Amino acid sequence: MKEFFLFSILVFSCSVVTSQSINPPYLSNETYTYSDLVDVYRNLERNSEIAKFKELGKSDIGKPIHLFIIDKDQDFSADQSKARKKSIVFINNGIHAGEACGIDASVELSKNLLDQQHPIHKALDSVVIVIIPIYNVGGMLNRGAYSRANQNGPKEHGFRGNAKNLDLNRDFIKCDSRNAKVFTQVFREWDPDFFIDTHTTNGSDHQYTLTLIATQKDKQNPILSEYAQKSMLPSFYRDMKDREMEMIPYVYNIGSSPEDGIMAFLEIPRYSSGYAALFDCFSFITEAHVFKTFENRVKHTIGFLETVVEYAASHTTEIINTRAKAKLRTVSQSTFPIKWQLDTTRVEKLPFNGYETGQKESEVTGQKMKFYDTDKPYKKEINYYNSYQAEIEVKKPVFYVVPQAYERVIERLMLNQVNMMELKSDTIIEVETYYILDYKSPKTPYEAHYLHSEIKVEKKLEKHQFYKGDVLIPTNQMSNRYLVETLEPESTDGFFAWNFFEGILQQKEWFSDYAFEPKAKKLLAEDSELKKEFESKKREDAEFAQNSWAQLYFIYQRSPYFEKTVNRYPICRVN
User: Which of residues 329, 356, 376 is at a domain's end?
Assistant: First the structure.
């Protein structure tokens, strides 16, 4: 019995050593499996009173998404976010599970924070850390060595798509996945000051291991933007350089290579950082460079995470105060941009460490192809297009009205903690109504949707019948930006663009030409303006003049027989 007891202790000790990883797997060009990652965080919780590891909810594959919280005060509930005594740093990993550097980096960050001898431990006096160890659980379980053809390690890794083959970094508005619904709930509950989503990037080659996407300055709340541009971002770049981990803004080429210039990435709300920015959160995406070694990618990601934590610790009060001012501005803001375009007239010069490009003959195709010559590094200034301008702006209404028939929309509003009220009785309200005039859709689906673009609308002031249980949403709340960017039909990532209202785009009632022809004749005889418009159309459009059915439909559309709800956007505005 004694021998069995000793053997059990030995086995348990070995399992702890394995999952704790005395030598972290990234040093051997490896990354954690899902079960190993769960074991690591469970052991960190077991060995520290200031850490909590808990399940948030089920992912699409049925296994849980977890949250790891480090709080020196041992208050592991999201309620503390409302008190605003400490700044909150929220880190999300593995949204693309093959991009594993953040998964490993967050483990090392957690170990360092929990080590009382480590310098960063002191940051916990004024910072709370919230980590999703792996968001795309299904993608992490779909493990292999070949799904990242460009990537330099690790040996095996997860897959970009989740269990439904969705790219979760396109799912923050439409919320097609369980993952996104779980994330939305926990993100809104914690309301973090900083949000960091860790990635690995493909693309051009250059000398930097880490590039950074910060919320685009022109679409960010101006109060946050001024603070980020003048204080926060310069500090981040200086600190990373001091760590000998110099980074650069995300290399998003405007031409064929960085030498032609790069532009700021416009992270609209479908993306994690664009979604976080809707709620006046300082949000970032790290993009570790795919060609650098996995070890270096992890180390640079650790460096950036520690940089943010240390900055948050030393600037807690001003961060909390700056966000509070920004939120008040969002509540009172009257006009919101909902579509953006790059401003190519405004350009900055950016010092850049790259590689010269050249042409060589492909040994496979025999054709000329571009390559980056890593034997020819350069340092030069390149053009950086870092400015966007609003293409479409809308003035918020006093209220939006959402018919109860659109449960999927209301569910997402509720997940995002939108304040709303139900109508207590049937009532007629004078509202501003949109009619969809035109839109473009792709021939093939994009993330399980036929995403609409180039949306054109017209507005009409009308009286509509609404019913008990329909939803009235005031626009005097901190969710204003989320509301406007999802409920306005012209918005790039609005619910209309994502196909939540396809039923309105189909006409339900039609006519037979032989049955409607007598009615059309009578309508023309009784309505001189209609007849004038009809005759003018025939004179100016030769094809129309030869098409009997088109002529009858022209009259039908302008008659009392034509249904008034086709192309009528169902969410109305009360001004």
Answer: 329
